[in-house]
Amino acid sequence: MTESALIKRWIHPHIRSLDAYAVHHRENMIKLDQMENPYEWGDDLKHAWLETLRGISLNRYPDGAASEVIAALRLVFQIPEALHVLLGNGSDELIQTVALAVGGSGRVMLAPEPSFSMYRVIASVTGSQYVSVPRRPDFSIDPETLLDAVKSHDPCCVFLASPNNPTGNPVKPELIEAVAKAVSGIVVVDEAYHAFSETSFLAHASAYPNVLVMRTLSKLGLAGLRLGLVMGTPELINELNKIRLPYNVNVLTQASARFALGHMEWFEAKASLIREARKTLFQSLRGLPGITVYPSAANFLLFRVPTGRADGVFSDLRARCVLIKNLNGVHPQLEDCLRVTVSTPIENEVFFEALKASL
Ligand SMILES: *Cc1c(COP(=O)(O)O)cnc(C)c1O
Question: Which of 97, 201, 218 best tests ligand 1's pocket when mutated (most atoms within 8 Å of CB)?
Answer without folding.
Answer: 218
